[in-house]
Amino acid sequence: MSIATRRRNTEVFSISFLDCICCGFGAVLLVFLLTVSTKSRVDKSVVDVVREQVKKAESDLTNAKQDVDQLARMLAAAQLELQDIASKTKDDQLKVSDRKRELLLLLQQTGLIKDALDRLLAEKKALPTDDVSPLPIPEVDRRQYLTGVKLSGEFVVFIVRVSGSMLGETIDEAAGRIQESDSAKREAPKWRRTIHALEWLLATLDPETHFQILFFNEETTPVIPTRGDEWFTTKDKTTLAQVLKRLHEVVPQGGANLERAFTAVRFLPRLPDSIVLLTDGLPTKSDSLPMEGDVDEGHRVRFFEIATKQLPPRIPVSTILFPLLTGDPGAPGMYWELANATRGALVSPSKSWPDT
């Protein structure tokens, strides 16, 4: 066989093929390099974002831990306070129980004391006695007539007008009784009401209250002339009987010098805590402004003003003003001003008291 006719062998890896392979490989390698570079930049930004998120999460976690710690401290404090409250509540309950026991004991003792007192009162009632008070309260159902009179304090002085005007409701009636006998004068209705009012006032005094009675007309005298420097009590039944006897012996007569009566109060062994004046009008005599003959209302008002200046200060003066239908229209107003100035009272019993 000739060389010409010999078949050629096919070359698989020719130069052109290798070139193509190399170019493709290079392209792939370039794409890979570009991709890796871009991915590196993307991963770094993601990492930065993640790091920021981690930092924020760590900060939130720290704050959360602080909040948890604070809540834990508050809880511990609340638990301690709750324990204290529970302890105090227990102590209070114990105290309440103790108080209940003490109260029950006191109630039992009070019951025993009451029973003992009832027994003593029953025994007292059963005791025989002849000791009768010389001063029963007159006209008990009509006490309210004089309830405005203030008998405050431990020492009370009663100043009773015993002038001739106390014999009648009017000046003419009083003048008509001047010529009567002493026994008839003592039975004059107006004077009897005055004595009854004084007896009622004495009967309502506290047994521990000391009293003195001054009669005044043109002079001022104690109810028991020899004992003008003493104070009496209703517990002293012997003295009280003497006082009552003396009240029924007095005869109203003459004029009325209130200045001397108020001056006499200053010379008592002790200044009184309150004064009760029983009268029927303004005074008709005055040592500071002596006058003879009849005096008009203006003079009597002046006599009254002079008399009130002799009163010791800060002593309440209560007046029981009996009616005198003529002669003294300004008397109620003057005695009202006296009561208001001294924080006393003014009472005017009805004409029919105490009979109806």
Explain what this protein looks like in three dimensions:
The chain has helices spanning 15-126, 171-176, 182-186, 189-203, 237-247, 258-266, 297-308, 331-342, and strands spanning 155-161, 210-216, 220-222, 274-279, 317-321, 346-347. It is of the alpha/beta class and 356 residues long. It has two domains: 16-129; 140-347, Rossmann fold (3-Layer(aba) Sandwich), CATH 3.40.50. The chain has a six-stranded mixed sheet. It is elongated, with a radius of gyration of 58 Å. The termini are far apart.
In total, the number of domains comes to 2
* CATH class group of the largest domain: Alpha Beta
Biggest sheet record? 6 strands, mixed
| Average pLDDT, all residues | 83
Strand line-up in the sheet with most strands:
3-2-1-4-5-6
Distance between the termini: 190 Å
Radius of gyration: 58 Å
**Secondary-structure element pattern, one letter each:** HEHHHEEHHEHEHE
Bin the helical content. 40-55%
Full CATH superfamily name of the largest domain: von Willebrand factor, type A domain
- Structural class by helix and strand composition: alpha/beta
CATH topology of the largest domain: Rossmann fold
Low-confidence stretches: 137-144
Total beta strand runs: 6
